[in-house]
Amino acid sequence: MTVPFEHASSDGYVNATVNVTYSFIACSGEVHIAYSLNEGSVSAGSSYRLDGKTYSASGAPPRPSSIRFAGTVYRGPSPVGSFADGLAGKALGMGCFSGQTQKIANLSDVLGPKPTAAQVTAYLNSLSLQVQFAEVLRNASIESSIRAEQRKAEAEAARQAAEQAKAEKAKVDAVQAAAAKAQAEQAQRASAGGAGGPVNPRPAIDTAAAQKQAEADRLKQLYEQGERTRAALEEQHRQEYLAGQAAAEAERQRQLQAVIDAAPAAMALGASLEAAVDGWDARRRDRAFAASMAKWGDRCFIRNNVGKPKDGLVVLGEPVRGKLTAQDCGYNSEIRFKAYLLSIASPMRIQFDVHTPTFRQVAFAVTPIEKGDAVIATGSDMGEFQRSVSGTVELQPGEYTVELYNVYAHNWGGSFEMVAREVDAYGRPIVRQKAAPAN
Q: Following DSSP, what letter does each residue of 311-379 receive, concatenated?
């Protein structure tokens, strides 16, 4: 599946995708999605945004070691469940214990308490996935290159401004020098022409005024030049600050990338240890189940998944007490059961009440011995505590097997008590008088 990254509005690639391999699997009575990131499958467009502006992006895109993988699972138009993993990476495998998975739903919710393998496979094959956007894909190398070009352009602009200011000052100085020279020559000619006659004070006054104005202009030029120098120094300091900030950000990104790169190894080690423990536990349960079934032989079932009533009789109104252990018959390595015989002489409504003070969940099923499916079966969602269950059913004359079993995977090892009573339409117990013995 191709997973799109979110389109960048500020920083990151405008368009980018990556491939994720996934499959739907059944794990301990639950529907899971298993997935693995294909790190080398990243594809990115040629547009990159930084600080809200768009730039051309060249070179290979980064290869993230993890992404946010989330979505909703559908069966036809109906949603089944959702999931999200903020650190989805490359998996060791695609199994319940060898890979990375997310729970979608309980099999008992969608297929009933005892689905067959064929029903589970058909259900998994009918599911589809609508994936969400992953987080924006960023490239630290491209961003560093863009910021370096920005600093270079800003430095060139500052240099050109300084050269322009210098040229303008030289032009002003030349104009002022020419004006001063002309005034001096005029004063000299005036002085020479007035020899032996009355002295005209006006040229001297004009010369003094011109010199005063020239000095004022020179001071003004020096002030403006100082202001430009100060502004240039402030800009230089700002650029140096920005460069330091960019370097610090690049170092932070490098450290963050190092942490991200190291995460899969740590996760892989944890997953490997977890898989080893789970594998050992699963093999232990499988061996216990094989030993139990070998002990009972063909005494566990009268037909497919219908328990043989080998553990006793159900007498109306009298409690049946027992205990589920790993040595009992089982439907698989995770669920054990006991089966009892119930004989019905006439049509009646029977209420069953089952309670366990010790193990996590309890359920029961009532099935005709001769043929047919269960006429009543109870249970609860995986993960819930339900130590007491009740159910009422109309039974016709005949013999039935009453199976009592644990619902939560490989959670037994406790006692239980079951009572079956005849009740009326309102659930009130019916007590029948026993026939008197014949004389």
A: S-B--TTS-EEEEE-TTS-BSSSS-BEEEEEEEESS-EEEEEEEE-SSSSB-EEEEEESSSS--SEE--
